[in-house]
Specification:
Layout (H helix, E strand, L loop, with lengths): L23 E6 L10 H13 L3 E8 L3 E8 L6 H15 L12 E4 L15
Antiparallel strand pairs: 1-3, 1-4, 2-3
Helix pairs in contact: 1-2
């Protein structure tokens, strides 16, 4: 079994193949891992930001106190994942009237097809 490299920095970019679905798993951490995300005002503003940011579609997500996990897929090829994430993070910050950055600058991105099942993680996909 091939060993996956350990990343010290998030991967950049997502390859989109027109003849197959693209589903991406993204983790975005709050700045300095502060625990201020898991509340109703942030959740409502986050959902509204995703509705306005229509270049990518959000599927299942998990909002934790200091980070977000989400599955997303491109609606079009007009905007990269990084551009889309920057758009909704900026919109969220403005909705919540935060002058400082809410999240870390980069996100951890995993293409769904790259995930592999291991005895520890239980992920079953191809």
């Amino acid at each position: 079994m091939r060993e996956r490299p350990v990343r010290s920095h998030p991967a950049e970019g997502v390859l989109i193949f027109r003849d197959q679905p693209t589903i991406v798993f993204v983790t975005i951490c709050s700045r300095k891992r502060r625990s201020h995300l898991a509340n109703d005002s942030v959740h409502n503003a986050l959902v509204e930001s995703w509705r306005a940011a229509t270049a990518w579609l959000v599927g299942f997500y998990l909002l934790m106190p200091d980070h977000i996990h989400l599955f997303c897929a491109p609606q079009s090829e007009d905007y990269t994942l990084e551009e889309w994430v920057s758009f909704w993070k900026r919109r969220l910050r403005r909705q919540l009237k935060h002058s400082k950055h809410f999240f870390r600058r980069t996100a951890f991105i995993t293409g769904f097809g790259e995930m592999r099942a291991t005895p520890r993680n239980g992920i079953m996909c191809g």
